[in-house]
Amino acid sequence: MKIKNAIFTVLMAFGSFMSYGQRPGRVTLAGFVSDAKSAERIVGVNVYVPKLNTGTITNNFGYYSLSLPRGKHTVVFSMVGFKSQQMELNLERDTLINVELLEEITELDEVLIVAEKKQAEKVQMSSIDLPMKSVKKIPMLFGETDLLRAIQYLPGVQSGNEGFTGIYVRGGSPDQNLILLDGVPVYNVSHLFGFFSVFNSDAIKSVQLYKGGFPARFAGRLSSVIDITMKEGNMRDFSGEGSIGLIASRLTIEGPIVTDKTSFILSGRRTYLDLLTQPLISLQSGGARAGYYFGDFNAKLNYILDARNRFYLSYYGGIDRFYFRDRLSSGFQTQTLEGGLQWGNNTGSLRWNHLFNNKMFVNTTLNYTRYRFLTSFEEKHSINTEQNFSAKFFSFIQDFSIKTDWEYSLNKNHYLRFGVISILHDFRPGAAEVKLNLVNIDSVIDFSKRIRAIENGLYVEDEITLNSRTKANIGLHYAQNFVNRAFYHSLQPRISGRLMLSDKTSLKASYVMMQQYIHLLSNTGIGLPTDLWVPATDRVRPQIAHQGAVGASYSLSSSYEFSAEAYYKHMSHLIEYKSGASFFSTTDWQELVYTGGRGWSYGLELFAEKKLGKTTGWIGYTLSWSWRQFAEFNNGLPYPFRFDRRHDVSVVLTHKFSERFDIGFTWVYGTGIATNIPQGQFATLPIEFWDFREPLYINPDMIKVVEHYGPRNSFRMPPYHRADLGLNFNKTLFRGIQRTWNVSFYNLYSRRNPFFIYIDYSNQGNPDRGVYKLVSLFPIIPSISYNLKF
Q: What range(s) does the TonB-dependent receptor-like beta-barrel domain occupy (predicted)?
């Protein structure tokens, strides 16, 4: 009751703001901005009033609200990729205007360029919007468009080597990233043991990355927020797109159920690696079956009840499956062996958008998300069924949550956001199910106790206009976590500010505190499905981070933007597996970890981007340091985090030669990751073999060779660098169908990038000395795919 009363008191306080209303002589202009072709709402549209040098941008649902003086105004609606629209309005009262923008095919006109120069600058720092059109032109492994790999090309995001799809942002680890799909957290974002991500780009509308300066509406992670919004579905025409590639195919279909009232979108992707390799496996094994595949399915329903109410129902399901099956015959007896690995996500979301009035917009959601890992083995006998045996090991995490977010345009100087969230976490870190007919065993064994936790949050943030050149976003997030006998809570301040030095140059600064109530246990850092999600408990404290950043940005024109940011982040209460511990253990996970670790990172990020014209792209550079410290590791001394990469460079370019041909090019470079490998060895003789009264005779069997590793993570792998090239051959077929042949070259100059390094002691010339040997995964890989859009 105390919590409910506190929430009610806060909401009543905001109610007093509502009753305050606008000052006399001012009105509110509000509405939604949509795509004229599909009626899909557009995120990030600039709504700008040149005369007043003021404006705003549309939110994730295409909504805008702007406080203006009564009278006549020129309002410009602009967005890269769309024709700008200029409206002459005479505002005498609060007005609701919905706007539709046409897609821009040729270069942007002068009206938009002028609007872009003077548009309202973002207060938010350390955030980047990633256009999906640019993502699709970036060449990728096997020609598969990969959203997370595109994000890894941005400064401040460490990419790792092949097999590392995990996002490492400003010295953080993968579990410290809040990855949202339509507002729902996705816990495992990797396919094929880390080589691909789970997001199908054909179903994605917009992506925004926050590396720091987090708004108060986001919470629960330390390092980043990746906010991904699915497409809503075409309200006016049936359309779609698909692709057939070397290892996977995908298809997306969208259209109206009731024109301008209800729409849908369905999108699916599946690999056929198992179908391609099955003939080879059967030929070599005499009929045994084995294979691996992954797949994704996205669905969304969009329903407009009336001008002020809209509902969304969205779903995502993804699966990775490795399987084997073999039959052995002996006389009349047939023995069948089968098993494998399986892991995947399921998420669902029901949203309600409601516009109370021109000043207040509300989004309420019910969310569900689950990640599950399963490994199984089964042995069946056709006659002696008492010998049948099966075993499964599984783990999962699932959440049920409800959240409501309110946006209120108080007046021209204050734009308020506030809301509440409640999450029920359900953790099952590890359990085994065993069946053995011989001794009549059929039971489930919990290696780690199932834990449920409740996490609540309440936030408020105010985007304040202090004067024409200074804005700030000041927020506060209050979080609670109830788990076992423990109760954790925290007040997390969030502050971001922007000072315009001129129409082209601004300075920014931010400070945030974040608290995280979940942990990820990993042996490798590669992002395998065996990594376990576990909660903060009465024995394991939640993670905490403080981050500060300062930066500057410069807009040479509407096409060119430059930015520089310096940051410092400190983390506490980190955890790590003890030496030799792993996910498959009969001991509770809390007995297998060290707690109380610290981490800190700092660095400089430079970013240059060209947004418009035939040539677009960006260049990013990161100079950074990242450290960890545990009392139990490295004699208690600080050591480099595995993804401490001093230098990280990325170049992403696309060029449109004509309507029929364009190319994409990327080049990345990164300092080698820090790791542990033997750096020497020496021989020892047990003391019981020593006898100083007689000459020492040494039997080789007495000698024990010991490897010396040196300080933790003191070995650096060779630098990672790679170039990729993609060629797109476009043609418009009958009835406006667009065809594209894509030819890609991954690792263009066939660089042998390190996956891991080992010591080979089979050197015949000197068998006592090992030789370091490097294992790499991919040489140059050409690929081709056929794409249709209709």
A: 291-748
